[in-house]
Structure formats: structure tokens, C-alpha cells
Specification:
single chain; about 220 residues; alpha/beta; 6-stranded parallel beta sheet
Length: about 220
């Protein structure tokens, strides 16, 4: 059977596959963090912790490259575009302002760090980013190229912003992408559904969608 007729999940090679865990940070997942202060419903975001934990367990055992990303800015905010800062101010959670977990979305603050349940292992890669796409102004592309990565499993928050931005950049760079639907989430269910719906158009313009159960089954059968 021609490879193009087999699903991306079935045809992937573990040694050439990376699991991307996007922005599972206290600022996005805890009630005291940036997302909650900006008015997002964080309950759906928190619900991704368990499926991502399952994917990390099977991915580590299968030998996948594990990459975690963190969104945040330098303490002087020199890498924060003026419009992004202005927008965050309008949302009621100005980047760099003081909050219960330290300055919002600032590197080195308590809120910028990962939640404990999906904390990276020492040998896993952490990509710090100032934008929404994990490829913008980071070394992610170099890391993936060095390891010969062809396929990306996309997880994290939020579906319509950082996950989608990273996915679209990855597709333009030629990666085969699988978005794990229940391992990513939005504070708005309609936006989550819309972001997923866009993936499948035109024969899978942004790759394919799978569930955590399907990915786990793929690596344990």
C-alpha cells in the first residue's frame, strides 16, 4: 500500500517523531495565572494535563523526542511587541505586571514555570519563546533538523493560538503533523472546535487529528 494512503499516525517512525508539549505553564493553568486574569476559562486547559501525562509516558518509553515550550518575555520586555503588550493591558492582564505568581508572562517568575504534573525531565528539550509559534525566533527548527524529525505530535494550550500558530509554521516547514484533539484545549469550546475543523480541510491541509487513546494504542500495540 502506498504510504500516502496510510494515516500519519500509522506510518510514523518513532525515531523521527517528536512530541511537542506547548505552554503547559502555571500562568496558563493555575487560577492565579495570566490566563485566568485575562478572563479565560482555564478548566478546559487544566483538563489537558491528564492526557498529556499519558502521552509523555508512552512517548518517553517509545523513544520519541520530547520538546516542551514556554511562552514568556525578558524582564525588561524588550522582546514583547508593543501591540502584544497593549492587547494584554486591554484584556486586564498586562504582561509584566505583578500577579500572585510574580510578573505575568515574564521569564524566571513562578508563573512562567511548568505545572508539576507535566514537568520536563532533565534530558528533555525546553524551548522558550516570546511569540505564539514555537518556531518564531527560537532554535526549534535546528533541534528538529539535527534529530531528523519528520512527524510532530501537537499538544498543549491554547488550540486556537499557540498550538495552531506552531502547527501552521510546522506545515510550511514540511513536517507531518498530528494534532491530539483531547490533549489540547481552548478557554472557548467553539474556538477549539473551529481550530480542529480547519486541520482536515482540503484533504488534511494542516495534517491529521488523533485522540490520546489512539496515540497510546499506536505505541503500545
Amino acid at each position: 500500500m502506498d504510504r500516502s494512503t496510510i494515516s500519519l499516525l500509522d506510518s510514523l517512525t518513532p525515531a523521527r517523531t517528536a512530541l511537542l508539549v506547548i505552554d503547559m505553564q502555571r500562568d496558563f493553568l493555575l487560577p492565579e495565572g495570566y490566563a485566568a486574569q485575562a478572563g479565560l476559562d482555564i478548566a478546559p486547559l487544566v483538563a489537558t494535563i491528564r492526557p498529556i501525562g499519558k502521552l509523555l509516558a508512552v512517548g518517553r518509553k517509545a523513544g520519541l523526542l520530547i520538546v516542551h515550550t514556554r511562552e514568556g518575555h525578558l524582564p525588561d520586555l524588550s522582546d514583547c511587541p508593543p501591540y502584544k503588550l497593549e492587547r494584554s493591558r486591554r484584556a486586564g492582564a498586562e504582561i509584566g505586571s505583578k500577579g500572585p505568581l510574580g510578573r505575568l508572562l515574564v521569564r524566571g517568575e513562578v508563573g512562567h514555570d511548568f505545572v508539576e504534573a507535566v514537568r520536563p525531565l532533565e534530558q528533555e528539550i525546553v524551548i522558550d519563546k516570546s511569540g505564539y509559534s514555537a518556531f518564531a525566533h527560537t532554535g526549534l527548527q535546528q533541534v528538529l533538523t539535527k534529530r531528523g524529525i519528520e512527524t510532530l505530535l501537537m499538544t498543549g494550550v491554547t488550540t486556537e493560538v499557540c498550538v495552531s500558530s506552531t502547527l501552521r509554521a510546522a506545515i510550511d516547514l514540511g513536517y507531518r503533523c498530528i494534532t491530539v484533539a483531547d490533549a489540547c484545549a481552548s478557554g472557548n469550546l467553539d474556538l477549539h472546535k473551529a481550530a480542529l475543523a480547519m486541520i482536515a480541510v482540503e484533504g488534511g491541509i494542516f495534517g491529521e487529528i488523533a485522540t490520546t487513546a489512539e496515540v497510546v494504542e499506536r505505541f503500545t500495540r
